[in-house]
Design a protein that fits this description.
single chain, about 150 residues, mainly alpha, about 0% strand
Amino acid sequence: MNYLITFGTAMVPVVELRGAIPLGLSLGLSPFEAYIISAVGNMLPVPFIILLTRLIFEWLRKTAWWGKKIEWLEKKAHLKGRLIQKYRLLGLALLVAIPLPGTGAWTGALVAALFEIRLRTALPVILGGVLVAGAVVLGASCGVIAMWA
């Protein structure tokens, strides 16, 4: 059950593996288990986000209520995308790898979709960013746990 809780938490936007790894550790998972399960859970939505974002946005843009929200979200993604415009794939990896609010796999996938970066190109770059972010979060989490023990 602890595996499923950790896995599901890693799939949640904003929380992602930044919250799932410490949660998994607190549920008694080993650091390796928490890292792997969180990384896989964090990556699961990415292909769907990249493949379906533009289609869903086009459909929602036609409605009065969602239209302005979609414009706001696209504007926000393009602001995050300045790093991608300048450094392309390295920028995408950095956007995902920096474990701060507003970054991560969901944001990276959204930016990749809006900048029309192909799935087969974006997926390994986002995975690399997720693995780096996970290592940073795991190191910080284990350090904090060691200080409290």
